[in-house]
Amino acid sequence: MRINFQTEYAFRILIFLQIKPDENISTRQIAEAFNISVTHLNKVSQHLVRLGLLESTRGRNGGIMLAQGVLDKKVGDVMRAIEPSEDIAQCRGKIGLAPCAISPVCKLQGVLAEGKEAFWGSLNQYTLGELVTGEENANDIRLLLSM
Fold first, then answer.
1. How far apart, in Å, are the Cα atoms of 60 and each of 57, 68, 71?
2. Do 61 and 50 meet the contact criterion of CB atoms below 8 Å apart?
3. C-alpha span between 31 and 45 (Å, rounded)
4. Distance of alpha carbon 26 from alpha carbon 10, whole angstroms
5. Is the pLDDT of residue 133 over 90?
6. Can you give the CATH number for the domain in which 42 is found?
7. Radius of gyration over every alpha carbon of the chain, rounded to an integer in angstroms
8. I need a labelling partner for 95 at 20 to 30 A (CA). Which of 20, 29, 111, 141 fits?
9. How many CB atoms lie within 10 A of CB 113?
10. Residue 56 belongs to what domain range?
């Protein structure tokens, strides 16, 4: 399974905010740290706010920070909420298209569904809080991100 750029950016935001947990961080600061588009990060951060994963503050000293309890969320559950589609294959046909001609005898859809559930189960063995390494590397990372 391949994640889209919005999901990747969402996890970059969530991890970055763990490194600076008590600060209100601007999306511009995060975008500069990762050398990615502020426009894209704004869109992604707004989606994370709507999902209740981030809190945002407007104004001169505004920014985003992790919502209360977000570090206990399961990685797979967060990814499912962010990803627009879970479909691996279009065996049953897209809207307006007929299903695959061999679908009555093909087991591929079931096999893919089983693999997808194993994937989500594997991701749900971890919480967002477990995505950042211990404090021994945190200062080095803070220095890199502040440049």
1. 9, 23, 27
2. no
3. 11
4. 14
5. no
6. 1.10.10.10
7. 19
8. 111
9. 14
10. 5-146
| Whole-number Å distance between alpha carbons of 147 and 142 | 9
DSSP3 helix / strand / coil % (the chain, rounded to 5): 55, 5, 40
d(CA 73, CA 69): 7
Helices 27-34/38-50 angle, 10° precision: 130
pLDDT of residue 109: 79
Q: State how far Cα 2 lies from the chain centre.
A: 12
Compute the distance between CA of residue 112 and CA of residue 147 in angstroms, rounded to an integer: 44
Nearest 5°: the CA angle 112, 12, 139 is 135
- Rounded Cα distance, 77 and 124, in Å: 7
Phi-psi category of 98—alpha, beta or left, where left has phi over 0 and alpha has psi -120 to 50? beta
Q: Residue count of the chain, please give it.
A: 147
Distance, in Å, from the CA atom of 104 to the CA atom of 139, rounded to the nearest integer, reads: 57
